[in-house]
Amino acid sequence: MPAISDASDGVRPRFSVGDRVRVRAVYPLGHIRTPFYVRGRTGVIERICGVFGNPEELAQMRSGEPGQPLYRVRFRQQDLWPDYTGPAHDVVEVEIYQHWLEPA
Amino acid sequence: MSEDRGTYRPLTYFQLMEASLRELLVEKGVLTDAEVNAAVEDMRRRGPDRGARVVARAWTDPAFKARLLADGTRACEELGLEVPALRLVVVENTPEVHNAIVCTLCSCYPRMLLGLPPDWYKSREYRSRMVREPRAVLAEFGLVLPDSVRIRVHDSTADMRYMVLPMRPAGTEGWSEERLASIVTRDCMIGVAVPRLP
Hints:
By secondary structure, chain A is mainly beta.
């Protein structure tokens, strides 16, 4: 899907790099690009990737607008998996659209 | 074991759907068979040698490396490699950080640089375990990393595609770009291996 290069075409970014965010713990049906294993978990914005058509809308043959800011969110492995056996600095980074994030 | 003389298997649901859609598009004149074949050939022609060229250039040209890490798509275009309709994020391995790539939701993969993904990349096992116990998975690939190295797993869930920029191994001083590219394997750029001297 083509990137919408100008952020003003879509929803404005609410978060900045370094902000702590929580992924919404909701379970709608449809073409959802937010993996289950990060829902309800807290991470930190690693970078803002740009504004992209909303895949949940695009999958329904709709326009995907307004575009959603897309972030890369960094999670500590130990915050995702309480029984993680590796060191505390290991991380997973996941792309998440803004409408799935709330301030933490 | 007896020789496999070719076993008849009925098409799966998705194979049948693909064939039906393709035939319908051809019948309606939207596409021709030749166009479909050309697209398949194009896909098959692309291989990890493209990504290896990018890595070798980054190893020999620090300014290119900086541009590659800042904007992967644009840097690849400098080398004549089209990275269409999506953005490439290049992540750099260092003595402190090791990167690896997975797509837990499906099998997103930087095809324009690495070609078609290996079957294991698409397997449920790799996709589920790489975010859950990456050190165990890497060890099964023969890559054991000390706890002092941070493992950074990238789950490509949306519009980005990822490629790992491995560390240039010692003992390659003075090598040409071409020779350097020869030790950069597909698995190095997925992050389940590191380049080794032959």
